[in-house]
Amino acid sequence: MNKKISLFSLVLLIVAAIDSIRNLPATAIFGSSLIFFFLLSAVIFLIPISLIAAEFTSRFSEKGGVFHWVRSAFGEKTALVAIWLQWINTMVWYPTILSFIAGTAAYLFDPALAQNKVFLVSVILTVFWGLTFLNLRGIHVSARINSVCGIVGLLIPMCFLILLGLIWIFLGKPVQIEFDVQNMLPTLAGSENWVSLVAIMASFLGMELAGVHVGDISNPQKNFPKAMGLSVIILLATMLFGALSIAVVIPENEIRLVDGIMQTFSQFFTAFNIPWFVPILTLLIITGSIGGMINWLLSPAKGLLQAAEHGFLPPFFCKKNRHDVPVRLLFIQGILVSLFCLVFTLMPSINAFYWFLTALSTELYMIMYVLLFASALKIGRPTEAFSYRIPRGTRRLACAMGLVGCIVTIIVGYFPPDSINAGSTVRYALLIACGNIVLISPAFFLCLYKKKTWLNKF
């Protein structure tokens, strides 16, 4: 009998999947206004999705995850669209996290390698396929590795980054942002200010991911809501102050998205005369980033497996190994991600394409969250006495706030930030729209596949 995932391991599983140090440069480019947008994002998205995911997991303690949650409200077809959005989003997201790992690894040898595409591709493919084979051992092995990576490679570097930022300010070093009311409360009329929301919302994607492992969690009805609450506190504190630590040191127009973290640490270490610490911290950050990918590799694939078991994919994709891992889906996922990564590294402007993939990934995921919040509204408040239910007076408000946050993020995702050369606004918006259409459309073909299969039985 497999050992259940403890509350401590569950918190680290959630935090390590979301609290990526990689996301900090993309939020730091918005300066002191990011404080306002972090708090806004927490109110209109992070807290609502945490409440909904906690209630769903407590309510459906036998079978969890997006597919079963949406299915309970809108049926199998809508559930298939939801889980497809969660899965295909990761195909778009992987190139950004993998390129971050490769760009960080360059500092072990030569920082210039962060711009060398052959080096980036080599590291990207090695790391991704290594983790794919590791996940074949199942979620219990992955959770143990994730716990170690989360502490050593994520929380320690995050706290160290925040500490260095505080020391920088305390010593009176040049600060690149202004901490006054005018700058911290941005004018919301400008599209640039609203674009900040996309980068920050992208930092909070995945709060519901661990729900798919509900059968592997110790006492999920009590531990999952507790884990959600603790995770929200850790995520907000580390992401907000970590991003500010970058913003106070690097001018916004000089922040590099692929290796901006190491760019910041290098500046800290040079100023404090400890350059020998760069390779040590590099190894820690790579460890944390690899750990954070573990849950993203397996959880969406297991979610898509649920749809396959309901007839939306050919039986070929339903094969699982003795560790309950969807082997063939993982390998198909690996091939697609490899192709996405090759396209990513061949782009002439990595910074611009990095942002484009981040925005497109966020768009896809936000559409899934719209379905999730709508499902929570449709099925209503549980009448049974579950271990966790959202308080009666706040349930509809949480769903409404979540829907507003998702819709606003989807809209502003069509506007590129001024600090990144992504071409004209019209061209960029058309690319985002085309990307959404191309990547969502296979879900409808899968619905047709099931209908055709069902008709052929009669």
Gross morphology is: globular
Helix content: over 70%
Strand content: under 5%
The level 1 CATH classification is Mainly Alpha
Give a topology summary:
Blueprint: H1 7-18, H2 24-28, H3 34-59, H4 66-74, H5 76-105, H6 117-135, H7 139-170, H8 181-184, H9 191-202, H10 220-247, H11 260-271, H12 278-309, H13 327-345, H14 350-379, H15 392-412, H16 425-440, H17 442-456
How would you portray this structure in words?
The protein has 458 residues and is mainly α. The chain has one domain: Amino acid/polyamine transporter I, CATH 1.20.1740.10. It is 70% helix and 0% strand. α1 crosses α12, α3 packs antiparallel against α10 and α6 packs antiparallel against α13 (327-345). The chain is globular, with a radius of gyration of 21 Å.
Tags for this entry?
17 helices; mainly alpha; 458 residues; globular; Amino acid/polyamine transporter I; single chain
Would you summarize the structure shown here?
With 458 residues, the chain is an all-alpha fold. Helices cover 70% and strands 0% of the residues.
